[in-house]
Amino acid sequence: MTDPAVTEIDAPAPPAPQEAALSGRAGDYLDLDSLFSAEELALRADVRSFVDDRIRPHIARWYEDAHFPVDIVKEMGSRGLLGMHLKGYGCAGRSAVEYGLAALELEAGDSGLRTFVSVQGSLAMSAIHKFGTEEQKQRWLPGMAAGELVGCFGLTEPGAGSDPASMATRAVRSGDGWVLNGSKRWIGLASIADVAVVWAGTDEGIRGFLVPTSSRGFTATPITGKLSMRASIQCDITFEDVRLGEDALLPGASGLRGPFSCLNEARYGILWGAMGAARDSYEVALRYSLERRQFDTPIASFQLTQAKLVEMVLEIQKGVLVAERTGRLKDAGRLRPEQISFGKLNNVRSAIAVCRSARTVLGGNGVTLDHSPMRHAENLESVRTYEGTDEVHTLVMGRAITGIPAFS
Ligand code: TGC
To answer: Residue of 153, 165, 192, 323 with fewest CB within 10 Å of its CB?
Structure first.
């Protein structure tokens, strides 16, 4: 029998087109907000207003000038956004879902700004929090949580991207310490970092080291000419006979399991963040299509435009559902790496499609920095590549399904 409380008669009349666009109803088609608690929604609203006030007004210029706004780092710290999922040491101790919602809102501003939060919190701070001594945690984490210190995470090398097991960077025991030689590439924040978490081969296998960037022999050089992530810093790093004390070693990590477990954290943030870039692009396209007139009518009245908008809504709603499900599993302590691969592969891939389609709704105007979709799409080329390419995540899922690794 039909529940009288949910008859069609009780359903509110559909809003007029402009009203629907501006109220955001079309953006939350399946009423997904009801999946989140009041506390989660409050955190989301706080990050959204930070993005509206501090990122949106400036992001086009930062992107064009290839500028990372270092002055925003402390502000992110004071808002509890750095290492926000970690407990103690000045960190906010937020849930995985809250961290995900924050990543989504930040990436609605720009992937480069979300990447900063990921590298600092999910990679560098997570590595110290998971594997460091109490002394190492006390030395670095409170300052990093406050945004007074910046960290970076050195795994990828010029010759070792998808296959970090082939890394050439080596740390050799010398006296009561270590000597580090080698190079890393695509390392976010390295030129402004105070400490680098560096993964290196040793006689005992791959180990992690905390390398103060002021160490003699440490050089970080920003990579120029990027067509993506322009409001963000990625560097080449070299280590030439960098001398480290025994206290630089992260004692809790041995083998690739160490860096991979940090990558899990960052990949998790990405699967939420990508939906922010997609949502922002969709909202821009929807608004534009209702305002832009061609052939004497808003282009939103064309069937082909409506089909594009509908595809965007389908992909965004599905992606947020994947993110929410993944987040609940993570908060329950039941999230497996191959499930993170599902989310990263699916959500980044569909976010790129949404952003590119949104750009086509904007026509020629869409290729300038006056509108966000093409900037988001270009950023997502990096996002789909770092922290495991589409191909790597496809094969992680393939191994999970078949039991057969097909990496080489
Ligand atoms: P394999 O070499 O056999 O395994 C090594 C050990 O790691 C364990 N493991 C994991 N542990 C936790 N979480 C995961 N996701 C894990 N994946 C693997 C594995 O169980 C094994 O443990 P143990 O104890 O038996 O030794 O590696 P595999 O065959 O499992 O994995 C192969 C493959 C291709 C999936 C893996 O190599 C991979 O994920 N490659 C992609 C690497 C990647 O994402 N690189 C991007 C790094 S980003 C970066 O460096 C820049 S930081 C970002 C920035 O600064 O902006």
So the answer is: 165
Residue 252, both tokens = 């809790």
Q: Quick check: CB of 198 below 6 Å from ligand 1? A: no
Alpha carbon distances (Å) from 270 to 70, 123, 306, 392: 21, 12, 28, 15
The ligand 1 atom at the shortest distance from the C-alpha of residue 155 is 50
Is the CB of 256 within 6 Å of ligand 1?
Answer: yes
Decide: 257 in ligand 1 pocket, CB within 6 A.
yes
Whole-number Å distance, alpha carbon 401 to ligand 1 midpoint, is 18
Please give the single-letter amino acid code of residue 328: R
Strands 151-154 and 195-202: parallel
Is pTM beyond 0.90? Reply is: yes
186 CA: nearest ligand 1 atom: 51
pLDDT along the chain (408 residues), means of 10: 45 58 68 97 98 97 98 97 98 98 98 98 98 98 98 98 98 97 98 98 97 98 98 98 98 98 98 98 97 98 98 97 98 98 98 98 98 98 98 98 95
Query: 387 catalytic, yes or no?
Result: yes
